[in-house]
Amino acid sequence: MARVALDTPLITLFDYRLDRAASPGQLVQVPFGRRQVVGVVWQLTQRSEVAPAKLREVTSVWHELPPLGDDWRDLMQFASRYYQRGIGEVALPAIPGHLRTPMRWPRLLAQRGVQRFRIADGALPTLMENVPARLRAQRRLAEGLAQAGALDADEARALCSKAADVLKQWAGAGWVVVETVPFHETVRDVEDEADAGDAEDAEPTDTGDESTAGLAELLDDHTDSASPLGTKTLTVGQAEAVGAIHDALIAAGAQRLDKTPTTDDTPACPPFLLYGVTGSGKTEVYLRAVAEALHTRDVRDAQVLVLVPEINLTPQLEGVFRARFPDETLVTLHSALAEGERARHWLAAHRGEARIVLGTRLAVMASLPHLRLIVVDEEHDPSYKQQEGLRYSARDLAIWRANRLRIPVVLGSATPSLDSWNRAEQGRYVRLAMPQRATPDAVLPRVSLIDMEIERKRQRVVHEGLSQPLLAAIRARLEAGEQSLLFLNRRGYAPVLNCDACGWISDCRRCSAHMVLHKPERRLRCHHCGAESRIPHACPDCGNLDLAPLGRGTQRIEEALAEHFPDARLARIDADSTRRKGSAQALFAQVHAGEVDILIGTQMVAKGHDFRNVTLVGVVNADSALFSHDFRAAERLFAQLMQVAGRAGRAARADGPGDVLIQTRYASHPLFASLMRHDYAGFAAQQLEERRVALLPPYTHQALLRAEARKLDDAMAFLKQAREIAGTPALNDPRISLWDPVPMTMVRIAGTDRAQLVVESPHRGALQRFLTHWMSELRALKAPVRWHLEVDPLEI
Fold first, then answer.
1. Element (H or E) spanning 182, and its range?
2. Within a domain: residue 696?
3. Is the residue at 334 inside a domain?
């Protein structure tokens, strides 16, 4: 008999009769109710508590796919237990959707590679003649094929949204040839990646022309196919970090060669916290660590997992890794991939064909049978925490996975999370410091404050939220042929539309939020539920025609700068301007190529980009997070500001460092004092002391129970009942504290009211035991609410 994990909210495994050979970890097709579903064989057993007559039979076993290994199932088991979810709810969503569809299995097995498209020999002139200039997307695709030589499906789709149909038509005409290339042969030239942008901390080649320095030069700096370890001279900090990781890899390999079975008592390699200032060369450390891991002597086909926080950073880092490792198979894993492409990449990792796996948080769940190193870039980023379904932390699971496998894990950041910093202070993590920038003569930027209160008292004109000193600094950069970056973490034109006559404001009818004005599209849009409406010609309440936008977003700043600097070349990068696939990549390429004078952006531009000619960073409206109710707001703001400040002056300049100008009405705030000194350590010490006194994480551990209902009273009633259950003798534990149920700050989203209940304890083990018993009681409740539990919440 087989005990099978299925994707259901039920906690249990399901027993099935098995009349054929199967192993734990294999995918099977089984009947469930009236449906046929895919599950994972978790255990084989001779006994079942279900009566033999009621047991149903496994429909089919996917023997052609290697079983999911013990280490992968251990990871799923841990995530299930820690985050209080059923094994099936964790394991099945971690597998790409196409692999959970039996009818697709034969086709996936046949596609043991990547489809590549190239122009047939001698067909280029005919193809170009048959693609008229008015079909610009198809023209781009044809030119891309001609320039690159060959494109895969994703690259083609980035150039033309209907690439699949167009290429099929061209192939039928004989103009294009379709080939399936095995993963181990899918090697791209450095030139193919020239549009990919750049990666955090890549060290540039000194070209003497910083205005045209782009990815090609940066890739050249990282490329040495004869020596994956690279030939650049390392800084002292880089050399020490590479040496420490090298020693850990050697020790881990020796432990495996010793053939001694590992247990929970076997010493594990402590995580490395790679604490390097922006531009210190963390990427070079990653590259050398990966090279060491891939050539470890105990495993021939060693694999490495590299995590990045956001999808838009993936192609940039991918370009650098492909350039350094042209002979290694690299695949990416993230939610923007087409389902078929994601399934093929996942299969390449599972079969051991892909040696480097680069992806966002979902990649931590991938099956990697020969994993020898994990790298988590920008480990502090909240994007590593999943906010839907299984609310897991990819960083925390990466640390657990490395500890379980007794392999090194590298957590890189210029502004580590306070959790990680505290563990390093306690000696549980090994801190590797890189306090200098890697480029010779490049120094950290000057951070200065523009006190908006002083500007107001002096009655200086403020142009759409932009002060005179900031505008003067931008003008100076334009005259010098340098680039400026303006950071405002609020997209849209204005946060709200207002009527001065009666006080009407553009509220969302479905949420406790305002509709944001998007002027270019002439729409009001809710950023929470997605509701849209036209901009009214008059006030809906009083008929007043004079409706005014309040506040500023990136669109309004872009408009103001266009009026003030009519000859400047502007670009805006936010979620609105990068909706189309490949658009963000194209905009970043323009910045790197020197085709943009002033870049306006949200947090998308704040990290992971090496803008060689940006010498000025201006921060607008930094005060909004200073007095938040969220105790993590200061930590996030400091990280955000230090990251965006790090975009300035990354190349050496004869006339001094780059400049960062921050507009604020609270110039005396201690956060800004630490920022001006680039003193993350001092800021972290002050924040940790505040949290220690207040008994906040990392000095306590929390869980958050959220309830959603059509009526707020129903959600509150459920949480009150849950609190009462926690107080029963069977669950009562003096080490557990429960806060009173309260409505959430934003009570209503998409027509649903929300409330929350916080549980905390200074003892993680006690909290986990309490949650396990509490959840079993809560699942038995019948209430008109949807609810979920989040362990280690980042937002309360």
1. strand 176-182
2. no
3. no
In this structure, the answer to whether residues 656 and 765 fall within a common structural domain is no
Letter for the amino acid at 103? M
Counting every residue, how long is the chain?
796
Residue 199, pLDDT score: 36
Q: Establish if 308 belongs to a structural domain.
A: yes
CB 267 within 8 A of CB 403: no
355 close to 328: Cβ distance less than 8 angstroms: yes
Same domain, 729 and 667: no
Same domain, 575 and 650: yes
- Are 81 and 118 found together in one domain? no
pLDDT of amino acid 185: 52
pTM of the entire predicted model: 0.85
Q: Compute the distance between CA of residue 448 and CA of residue 656 in angstroms, rounded to an integer.
A: 15
| Of 643, 649, 603, 633, nearest in space to 487 by CA | 603
Q: How far is CA 343 from CA 311, 321, 337, in A?
A: 17, 22, 9
User: For the chain, how big is the Rg over CA atoms in Å?
Assistant: 28
Range of the domain at 282: 236-257+265-317+352-434
Whether residues 147 and 99 fall in one domain: no
Which tokens hold the place of 679?
Answer: 């003193």
- What's the pLDDT score for residue 44? 92
In a domain, 98, yes or no: yes
Q: What is the pLDDT of residue 215?
A: 32
User: Looking at the structure, do residues 243 and 390 belong to the same domain, yes or no?
Assistant: yes
Q: Quick check: 490 and 512 in contact, CB under 8 A?
A: no
Number of domains present in the structure of the chain: 5
Please give the annotated binding residues for Zn(2+), written as ranges.
499, 502, 508, 511, 526, 529, 539, 542
Torsion of CA 712, 714, 718, 723, to 10 degrees: 50
pLDDT for the residue 217: 35
Which residues of the chain register pLDDT less than 50? 184, 186-226
Q: What is the pLDDT of residue 577?
A: 85
How many separate helices (H) and strands (E) can be counted in the chain? 23, 31
Report the distance separating Cα 42 and Cα 23, nearest Å: 9
Residues annotated in the binding site, as ranges? 499, 502, 508, 511, 526, 529, 539, 542
Residue 451 pairs in a beta bridge with: 664
Q: Rounded to the nearest 10 degrees, how much is the dihedral formed by the CA atoms of 88, 93, 97, 98?
A: -60
User: Where does residue 744 rank: exposed (0-12), middle (13-18), buried (19+ CB within 10 A)?
Assistant: buried
Tokens 């050398």 belong to 288
- Do 64 and 87 belong to one domain? yes
